[in-house]
Here is the input.
Amino acid sequence: MNRPTRLLSTAAALVAWLLLAPTAQAADAPAGCPATLQHTFPRLQDEKPQSLCQYSGKVVLVVNTASFCGFTGQYKGLEALYAHYKDKGLVVLGFPSNDFAQEKGSNQEIADFCENTFGVKFPMFAKSSVKGPEASPLYQQLAQLSGTAPRWNFHKYLLGRDGKLVDHYSSLTGPDNKGLVRAIEQQLALPTPR
Here is the structure.
């Protein structure tokens, strides 16, 4: 084997190993936790670390949020969606972000705003980045799976009970959109993976 071929072979083996090697988070994840949920984020209200693996087996709607956006009123619809379907297995996960310069407050200010203005009860996490090289590992993963990073606040990613990406929706798709609701109901009708 000549030197260039050997280098290519070694590089290919290294790339394969890197792609297949478990991450530190994945190695610590409970058995059965899908890769999309093998992330830990500080809770918005008290910044205590929360593993997303606790939502394994649920239909998950991941939304990047902001308090001072034309779409901020979607909080009300997201909370209504969560309240209506949570007993059937839906969870809405909110990720405040200032990537679009519309979330300037502290985590506590965001938490107070969400609860006092919209009565938000669905899980919310500390402010983080959702696009570009600074995006959280979850959002990097969702962008890779969908081929689309959020282009604005209130972009939505729908994950099935198996943790696989079902679809993603732009900010223009409200929580009461018939297509989104139908997709959620279809996923809720599926059995929980074992």
